[in-house]
Specification:
359 residues; alpha/beta; six-stranded mixed sheet; 11 strands
């Protein structure tokens, strides 16, 4: 009897223990819950994003050291560092030390160069980029308002998209406005298009530019930005095509006598990135880069107009004479040449589409 009672008591205790361990709600035992780390859902906060690592990116430009272009590039590097809290450093390489224009684009396609600061026309030598040569047609744009309409148009967006896809690039937009381009000469005042005949005019590495100056009767000579001063000083070139600010900051007033404000080409400085590099950045890093581009443009825009007045006066104070050229003579010579450009320099009809944006 005692033995039977003991067995009953033992069985009762086991059933009690099993009932206490049961889990009809499917939750873990209280002891397990109290020892588990609190989840982000339980605490009501979102998971923390992984910390960004510090990186260094490389930027190239063929523009000479000491020019306003270098100020723009350095401002961009500074803005990137600021908005990223020091996590992204941009090393700036000016003066074509990384090679010529096409070499910069090639390095970006390979992922060996991260950024290239250049004008739109420089992409005209790339696959699917031929139409960009149109921006160098003299007097294409009536004024800056017309030019900005083009920059904001679907027309430019389509042109850029083809270049990006074909060359492994990412277009990030404008870093700065530039003043319209003109002409400086060492010994020859240019009062009409006839005066440029046979002059050796230094031009950047752009087929469209050499074609235009040839159409005007000059002998265009491709010389890198880093060698421009010495070429003009030695007589290898008689003049150069550039805006007032970069002519002055290159100190060309030391070796040249005349400047003609032709205002015949509107250009901005734009930032291209390696698609490979940009694609490997986190969304946060990409956002920092885009923010820095916008901040650089805003900073340069405030400075540009006052800098134009300052640099123009510096040229005058150093003995450079500003010549009022007959712009109509240049326009007439251009109109005669535009027909030759259609369908060869760029797609037929593109010139008229851009002209129509003026409204």
């Amino acid at each position: 009897m005692k033995k039977t009672l003991a067995m009953v008591l033992c069985l009762s205790m086991m059933l009690s223990v099993l009932a206490g361990c049961g889990n009809s709600g499917g939750s873990a035992p209280a002891s397990s819950q109290s020892n588990a780390p609190a989840s982000s859902a339980a605490s009501g906060s979102a998971p923390e994003a992984p910390a960004e690592e510090a990186i260094t990116l490389k930027m190239g430009s063929t523009s000479p050291v000491g020019t306003f272009h270098e100020t723009i590039a350095n401002t961009f590097a500074q803005k990137v560092n600021e908005v990223s809290g020091g996590l992204i450093t941009v090393n700036v390489n000016m003066g074509g030390v990384l090679g010529n224009t096409l070499s910069h684009y090639s390095q970006m396609a390979q992922g060996d160069l991260d950024f290239f600061m250049a004008a739109l026309d420089t992409s005209s030598g790339l696959k699917e980029g031929g139409d960009m040569a149109v921006v160098l047609v003299p007097f294409l744009f009536d004024d800056e308002t017309h030019y900005n309409k083009f920059l904001e148009s679907d027309l430019l967006g389509g042109m850029v998209g083809k270049i990006e896809s074909a060359n492994g690039l990412k277009y990030l937009g404008a870093l700065s406005r530039q003043m319209p381009r003109g002409l400086s000469t060492t010994n020859t005042p240019v009062r009409s298009v006839a005066d440029v005949k046979n002059l050796k005019i230094r031009t950047p590495e752009a087929t469209a530019m050499t074609t235009i100056w040839s159409a005007w009767g000059a002998n265009p000579t491709i010389i890198s930005g880093g060698e421009m001063y010495s070429a003009l000083q030695s007589g290898l070139a008689d003049g150069q095509d550039n805006d007032v600010i970069n002519t002055s900051t290159s100190a060309l007033y030391e070796i040249q006598k005349y400047y003609m404000e032709l205002n015949y080409i509107y250009q901005n400085l734009f930032l291209w990135a390696s698609a490979k590099t940009f694609g490997e950045l986190s969304e946060q890093q990409q956002a920092w880069i885009n923010e820095a581009v916008a901040a650089t443009y805003a900073a340069m825009d405030q400075e540009l107009n006052s800098m134009y007045e300052t640099e123009k006066q510096k040229m005058i104070d150093n003995g450079m004479e500003f010549i009022d050229a007959d712009l109509d003579s240049f326009r007439e010579a251009t109109e005669a040449a535009v027909g030759e450009f259609e369908g060869t320099l760029y797609t037929a009809g593109l010139y008229d589409e851009i002209r129509a944006l003026a409204g």
